[in-house]
């Protein structure tokens, strides 16, 4: 490990003409002449890989390394390792490529279908080389790599050449390098310049499906029956050699071993024209059959983006379920950043029914979204969703807020999200008002204490005056859960005066719950009053003693047992998602921000100069944007209760 650290630090100090920062080393086969490192491009932080060759350790390897760099510069193919840059100094040769990792460590976990999918990619690359006049000459499992999307990449171009004599020379230069061992081929007596890649492709197929049996070409074992016979022809005596091109064309024809939904749809992902309805339908139908075959990284980096472009044009239930399946197959890791911008664009453009379905499936995969997805554009979109005329869209929007609150930066929560919920509580739809209260209950534990007191005291007491019975009941239940959150002053001046009228409410359950809450408050306030010195004005804040009184209290201990929770859309919806939410503190929030009152306020800038956030100001903020045509039933409720 110390050797790796020393070598890495030495390489990092390379000339600025090679603008890459090297990170951790990646293990390669023990007989490789290269050392592989994860790296990032210094200018933009994009991930890449860097191969380095120690010229002192392998003095005869310089010629091979130069040849590999030269050929990778010339050859461009989707399944060939992508060249980025190269640099040479007195001690080392550097080769920068796209970000990859060796295939061999992952191969044992691959299914037969996935191995056939990978074999198609490598055969396509080898056919391209052979058609272009190149001899690769070094195809083994050790020479293959996986990119970030788990697509297979052909590497090891050290002896590759378009000239038979040059290839012979390069091959002779590999003496002493076990990785470049073609003794098994030379024993066949076939001309290298004509059949080397065909023979090696056949050996590779046996190695791929039957590890550790590369030299045994008589046993089929795990090789699919349709591939076994053509593979044997690839390694047959010289007169009946089966070329790489013959093997490839036989596989892609109708009914061939490469003619499968997963392979056909992969090809379409690269070439499909988004404006061609025929190709769009073909791709969607193929993905329905192949989505379970693809590795998680391929779904994450390739399939999801295409689905988000296609499905809005065909927003059927089965296609949306296909998107959900793709999300499920992406694993637990975060999706790439590009996915966040794509889904925001899709939500802004799609129809209302599709938007509701997409939001529902987003709820099921909320932890997979990239961290930078939860930003101001995301909250702006949520604001428009909560103003939608469609009830399902609104309820899914509230569910997204409740599920993603731990990952939203605290600045945005205080300065924008709470304002959005305040507007939602003014909705003319009573269920939206009730579900907004439930959403506040879900996000309250993630708010700063002073923000929590102001938001809950104002929002909940307002809901207590709602004419919709479930809204009043929900507000009471939320107050019971958080009654110890409020200071004695807020409890006496704001909360209790709004609960008292409910002791005469027309609903029996509300009356009983209101009485229980009032009894709790009177008991706790009585204890506080007994401990308050009469001669001290300042002791009225009672903050330390109040915390001591409620240190071991359980505000929900009696609520669940004595009162039946009303069935509500949001709670039913949230209970469907067995998600462990990620709790993280945004990098945008620092200690100084948390200590600044203005950070925790949801008021506009013109209110930031106020030292105190009065009740009248808060009520005004929660109602000032409500249109006259959409007044809530709050005023009617106040009149009925004589307030």
TrEMBL record:
UniProt xrefs under Gene3D superfamilies: Leucine-rich Repeat Variant, Phosphorylase Kinase, domain 1, Transferase(Phosphotransferase) domain 1
Entry annotated with the keyword Ribonucleoprotein: no
Entry keyword set: Kinase, Transferase
GO CC annotation: cytoplasm
Transmembrane segments: none
PANTHER family: N-TERMINAL KINASE-LIKE PROTEIN, SCY1-RELATED S/T PROTEIN KINASE-LIKE
Protein name: SCY1 protein kinase Ppk3
Organism annotation: Schizosaccharomyces japonicus (strain yFS275 / FY16936)
Lineage: Eukaryota, Fungi, Dikarya, Ascomycota, Taphrinomycotina
């Amino acid at each position: 490990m110390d050797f790796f650290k020393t070598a890495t630090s030495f390489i990092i100090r390379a000339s600025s003409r090679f603008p890459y920062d090297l990170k951790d080393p990646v293990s390669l086969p023990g007989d490789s002449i290269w050392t592989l490192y994860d790296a990032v491009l210094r200018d933009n932080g994009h991930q890449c890989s860097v191969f380095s060759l120690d010229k002192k350790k392998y003095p005869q390897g310089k010629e091979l390394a130069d040849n590999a760099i030269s050929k990778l510069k010339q050859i461009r193919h989707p399944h060939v390792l992508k060249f980025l840059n190269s640099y040479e100094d007195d001690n080392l040769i550097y080769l920068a490529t796209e970000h990859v990792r060796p295939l061999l460590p992952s191969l044992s976990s691959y299914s037969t279908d996935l191995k056939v999918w990978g074999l198609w990619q490598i055969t396509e690359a080898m056919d391209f080389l052979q058609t272009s006049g190149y001899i690769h000459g070094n195809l083994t499992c050790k020479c293959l790599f996986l990119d970030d999307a788990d697509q297979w990449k052909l590497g090891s171009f050290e002896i590759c050449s378009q000239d038979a004599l040059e290839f012979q020379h390069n091959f002779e230069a590999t003496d002493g390098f076990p990785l470049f061992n073609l003794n098994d081929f030379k024993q066949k007596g076939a001309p290298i310049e004509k059949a080397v890649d065909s023979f090696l492709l056949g050996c590779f197929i046996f190695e791929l499906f039957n590890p550790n049996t590369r030299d045994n070409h008589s046993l089929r074992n795990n090789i699919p029956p349709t591939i076994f016979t053509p593979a044997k022809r690839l390694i047959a005596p010289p007169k009946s050699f089966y070329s790489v091109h013959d093997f490839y064309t036989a596989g892609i024809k109708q009914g061939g071993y490469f003619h499968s939904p997963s392979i056909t749809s992969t090809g379409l992902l690269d070439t499909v024209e988004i404006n061609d309805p025929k190709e769009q339908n073909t791709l969607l139908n193929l993905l329905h059959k192949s989505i379970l075959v693809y590795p998680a990284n391929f779904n994450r980096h390739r399939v999801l983006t295409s689905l988000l472009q296609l499905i809005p044009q065909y927003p059927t239930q089965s296609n949306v379920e296909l998107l959900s399946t793709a999300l499920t197959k992406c694993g637990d890791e975060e999706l790439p950043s590009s996915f966040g911008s794509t889904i925001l664009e899709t939500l802004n453009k799609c129809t209302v029914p599709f938007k509701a379905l997409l939001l529902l499936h987003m709820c099921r995969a909320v932890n997979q979204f990239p961290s930078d997805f939860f930003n101001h554009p995301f909250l702006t979109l949520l604001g428009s969703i909560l103003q939608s005329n469609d009830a399902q869209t609104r309820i899914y929007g509230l569910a997204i807020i409740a599920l993603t609150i731990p990952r939203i930066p605290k600045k945005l929560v205080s300065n924008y999200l709470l304002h959005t919920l305040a507007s939602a509580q003014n909705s003319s739809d009573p269920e939206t008002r009730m579900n907004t209260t439930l959403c506040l209950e879900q996000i309250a534990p993630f708010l700063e204490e002073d923000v929590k007191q102001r938001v809950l005291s104002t929002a909940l007491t307002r809901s207590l005056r709602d004419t919709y019975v479930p809204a009043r009941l929900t507000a009471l239940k939320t107050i019971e859960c958080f009654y110890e959150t409020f200071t004695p002053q807020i409890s006496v001046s704001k909360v209790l005066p709004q609960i008292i009228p409910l002791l005469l409410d027309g609903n029996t359950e509300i009356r009983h719950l209101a009485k229980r809450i009032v009894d709790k408050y009177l008991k706790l306030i009585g204890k506080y009053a007994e401990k308050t010195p009469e001669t001290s004005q300042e002791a009225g804040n009672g903050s330390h003693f109040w915390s001591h009184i409620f240190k071991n209290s359980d505000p929900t201990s009696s609520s669940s047992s004595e009162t039946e929770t009303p069935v509500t859309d949001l709670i039913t919806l949230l209970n469907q998602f067995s998600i462990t939410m990620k709790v993280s503190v945004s990098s945008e929030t620092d200690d100084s921000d948390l200590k600044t009152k203005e950070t925790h306020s949801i008021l506009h800038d013109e209110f930031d100069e106020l030292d105190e956030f009065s009740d009248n100001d808060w009520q005004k903020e929660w109602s000032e944007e409500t249109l006259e045509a959409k007044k809530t039933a709050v005023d009617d409720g106040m009149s009925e209760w004589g307030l």
